[in-house]
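Feature request disguised as a bug: please show the residue count (246) next to Helix-turn-helix domain-containing protein in the output. Example input:
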Amino acid sequence: MTSLGTVVAENAIRFLGHDTHQHDEPHLVYVVTGTARLLADGEEWQLGRHEAVWLAPQVPHALRIEPGGMALGPYLNPGDLPRRRVQPLGAVPAIVEVMTTALGAAPSTREQVLPFRQALGRVLRGVSRQYFPIVLPTHPAVRALAREALRTRTATLERLAADHRMSPRQVQRVFLDETGLPFTRWRNRARMNAAVEHLRGGGELTAAARAAGYATRAGLLRALSRESGVPVSALTSDPAGALGAR
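Example output, currently without the count:
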């Protein structure tokens, strides 16, 4: 394909699902309407309307879209790489704007596609910078546990450790050794990074809190303020601006 889309007729931008395959370029899966199930790198992601997942090159993936739904599958420029092989983004307003414009314009040539690809790359680079630096553990079982913790934010450390046949004490020791952070603080930072991504993409606080798994915007504001040192008042009046300096 030479356009924004994949696995349909040349230069089309819509697709209704595909079997397992991979691309040489970074790739975005974006749900326009309905819901979809993405299998990527052996993990499963349930996506709703306007939600997106950013895939690195050579990530095996398959997509199944529920009847009546539709998705876009834009390739990205080679330098627009996610922080990890599969990076869920949620529903980021700036991505929605670019994809909606592309869908309406229906670019059909490489020249027509290029401005949309560049715009999408700028948005992705802007929202994906980690505000609170974290790294994944390298220990195989703990790395798998960490990824599960990001998908199931309500799961306790005790349950996650049991699922991976480890003790909570073992998991905590590996997290401290390999990330420099206790498990809870690591997961909280990852959740807050998801919220910051949403805010940088033009989202508002309530939606950012929901995207990051916080019950209320007040809970998100308190967490961001504790970790960043930025006053709650500044975060409330202009969250993206208050967090933009880092």
